[in-house]
């Protein structure tokens, strides 16, 4: 399969949860509390896309398939797309699009604060995702896009903090994030020029 | 204007259903009940084997209807399909999916503590002689969603009086079943310290609004909703309304309650619905009715303040939350 086909496949694969949610919403198939389903699912897919985008560099380094890097921007933008949907569902249906309600929740509830910060951090990453911005920022582009690590941690604690009693569901996300950040830490520690 | 002594003043919540429910809604409900018979029959198949439950079903269909809210009822599928009942699993769909794991026949309840008539009695003994009522109550979950539910049963007071609590009984505690040798699907992990426990102050327990539900939508209560009997305390958060009761104990001291034991800074003993006291994760100012997209304002004591505010007179509700 030529590489453009892989890009198409990735595009439609990552779009499918959104299509499924929109269809489910309008066909009344999202359960007793559709807003809760929308919130949980968009949040989950934002996190999954973020983890996938963080997995692409290690995957390239480990397999040597350089073309994998061509998927990274798309996957990263999907993380922003689902995070934005997640935020909008919450703002529209939970906070009735009110800025006052929104601000009150952000300032009163630490898990909301973390989630909102995560979305804010994704914003400059999405804006500077174009080739143009990449050229313009040069080396600083890479530094800026390390914010994705922080977003990963914010997303993880945002998730952990909202669980009532059963922490089992967050374990796969925590393990994946630890593995991805651990891999980077390991490589960084092994890089000799760090000492200079 | 002086009250006419010859007119019995009914409490606000005890209005006949047909006086407050729009006839069209009322007829829709009947239609819905007919249509849902198939679903309901499937859900109750295991129970149909018992003749005694047949009696209960007859008694429930003849229950006196009283109502507390003139709002559209939450759909039966949602009331029975979206539950927090951690014994059957932590996901809201788990209780309905694992409902069969809960065996409700035979069922017995032990009564202990500060009373003159302690002992063990069967579910059938317990409901014998009780006049069945249907009450439409608002159920408010601490997770900021709510439902309008038609429960059938009888006031807790008329049950508790039978055991003749002594003057030392200041509180009453309840437990849900926990058989270590045969745990329910959700009890195989220590999500909470089993068995599930709840408790009320005696005056709260004896309040006429405090209800024992044995039915839902005019039928015996489905397992996932706390069969064969559960508590309903409409002015408190849903978790206070303990499901599938196996033990009742009258105590001198404030009993331990499950959510309070797990996170005392988040869940108080009283757990009264109070829009002024937020949970660290859920603002309690507004709530979502299941079946609606946007939120509505939460009322003090879940809208039952005229009836129960008296119970908390002089208490600092920020402290005793």
Write the topology of this structure.
The complex is a heterodimer of chains A (196) and B (321).
Chain A: H1 3-26, H2 34-63, H3 69-94, H4 99-108, H5 110-127, H6 131-137, H7 139-145, H8 147-162, H9 171-190
Helix pairs in contact in A: 1-2, 1-3, 2-3, 2-8, 2-9, 3-5, 4-5, 5-8, 8-9
Chain B: E1 15-16, H1 17-20, H2 23-35, H3 37-48, H4 51-61, E2 64-67, H5 76-81, H6 94-97, E3 108-113, E4 119-122, H7 123-127, E5 133-140, E6 145-155, H8 156-160, E7 171-176, E8 197-201, H9 202-205, E9 211-216, E10 219-220, E11 230-232, E12 245-251, H10 258-262, E13 286-289, E14 296-297, H11 305-308
Parallel strand pairs in B: 2-5, 3-12, 6-13
Antiparallel strand pairs in B: 1-2, 3-4, 5-6, 6-9, 7-8, 7-12, 9-10, 9-11, 13-14
Describe the overall structure.
The complex is a heterodimer of chains A (196) and B (321). Chain A has 196 residues and is mainly α. Chain A has one domain (3-195). Helices cover 81% and strands 0% of the residues of chain A. Chain A is built from 9 helices and no strands. In chain A, helix 1 (3-26) runs antiparallel to helix 2 (34-63). The longest helix of chain A is centred in the first third of the chain and has 30 residues, at 34-63. The model of chain A has no long low-confidence stretch (mean pLDDT 93). Chain B is α+β, with helices and mostly antiparallel strands and 321 residues long. Chain B has one domain: Oxidoreductase, molybdopterin-binding domain (Sulfite Oxidase, Chain A, domain 2), CATH 3.90.420. Chain B is 23% helix and 22% strand. Chain B has 11 helices and 14 strands. Chain B has helices at residues 17-20, 23-35, 37-48, 51-61, 76-81, 94-97, 123-127, 156-160, 202-205, 258-262, 305-308, and strands at 15-16, 64-67, 108-113, 119-122, 133-140, 145-155, 171-176, 197-201, 211-216, 219-220, 230-232, 245-251, 286-289, 296-297. In chain B, the strands form 2 sheets. In chain B, strands 1, 2, 5, 6, 9, 10, 11, 13 and 14 form a 9-stranded mixed β-sheet that branches. In chain B, strands 4-3-12-7-8 form a 5-stranded mixed β-sheet. In chain B, strand 3 (108-113) and strand 4 (119-122) form a beta hairpin. The longest helix of chain B has 13 residues, at 23-35. Residues 1-10 and 44-49 of chain B have low confidence and may be disordered.
């Amino acid at each position: 399969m030529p590489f453009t086909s892989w890009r198409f496949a990735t595009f439609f694969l990552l779009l499918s949860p959104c299509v499924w949610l929109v269809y489910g919403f309008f066909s009344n198939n999202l359960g007793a509390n559709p807003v809760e389903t929308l919130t949980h699912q968009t949040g989950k897919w934002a996190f999954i896309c973020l983890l996938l985008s963080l997995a692409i560099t290690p995957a390239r380094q480990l397999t040597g398939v350089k073309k994998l890097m061509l998927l990274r921007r798309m996957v990263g933008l999907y993380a922003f797309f689902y995070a934005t949907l997640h935020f909008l569902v919450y703002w529209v249906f939970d906070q009735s699009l009110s800025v006052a309600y929104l601000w009150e929740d952000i300032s009163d509830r630490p898990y909301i604060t973390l989630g909102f910060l995560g979305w804010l951090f994704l914003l400059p990453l999405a804006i500077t995702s174009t080739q143009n911005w990449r050229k313009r920022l040069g080396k600083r582009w890479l530094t800026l896009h390390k914010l994705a690590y922080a977003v990963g941690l914010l997303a993880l604690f945002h998730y952990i903090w909202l669980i009532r009693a059963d922490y089992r569901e967050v374990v796969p996300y925590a393990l994946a994030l630890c593995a991805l950040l651990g891999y980077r830490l390991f490589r960084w520690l092994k890089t000799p020029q760090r000492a200079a | 204007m002086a009250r006419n002594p010859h007119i019995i003043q009914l409490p606000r919540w005890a209005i006949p259903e047909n006086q407050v429910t729009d006839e069209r809604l009322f007829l829709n409900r009947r239609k819905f009940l007919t249509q849902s018979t198939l679903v309901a029959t499937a859900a109750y198949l295991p129970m149909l084997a018992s003749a005694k439950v047949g009696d209960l079903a007859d008694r429930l269909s003849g229950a006196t209807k009283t109502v507390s809210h003139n709002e559209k009822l939450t759909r039966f599928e949602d009331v029975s399909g979206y539950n927090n009942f951690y014994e059957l699993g932590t996901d809201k769909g788990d209780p309905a999916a694992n409902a069969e794991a809960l065996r409700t026949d035979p069922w017995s309840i032990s009564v202990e503590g500060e009373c003159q008539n302690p002992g063990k009695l069967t579910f059938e003994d317990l409901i014998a002689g009780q006049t069945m009522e249907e009450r439409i109550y608002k159920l408010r979950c601490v997770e900021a969603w709510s439902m309008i539910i038609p429960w059938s049963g009888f006031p807790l007071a008329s049950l508790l009086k039978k055991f003749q609590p002594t003057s030392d009984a200041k509180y009453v505690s309840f437990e849900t079943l926990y058989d270590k040798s045969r745990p329910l699907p959700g009890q195989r992990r220590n999500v909470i310290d089993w068995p599930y426990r709840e408790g009320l102050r005696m005056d709260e327990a004896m309040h006429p609004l405090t209800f024992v539900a044995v039915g839902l939508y005019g039928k015996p209560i489905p397992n996932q909703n706390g069969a064969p009997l559960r508590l309903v305390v409409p002015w408190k958060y849903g978790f206070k309304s303990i499901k599938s009761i196996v033990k009742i104990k009258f105590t001198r001291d404030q009993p331990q309650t499950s959510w309070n034991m797990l996170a005392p800074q988040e869940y108080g003993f009283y757990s009264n619905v109070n829009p002024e006291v937020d949970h660290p994760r859920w603002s309690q100012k507004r709530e979502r009715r299941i079946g609606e997209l946007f939120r509505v304002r939460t009322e003090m004591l879940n809208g039952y303040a005229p009836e129960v505010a008296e119970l908390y007179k002089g208490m600092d509700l920020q402290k005793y939350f």
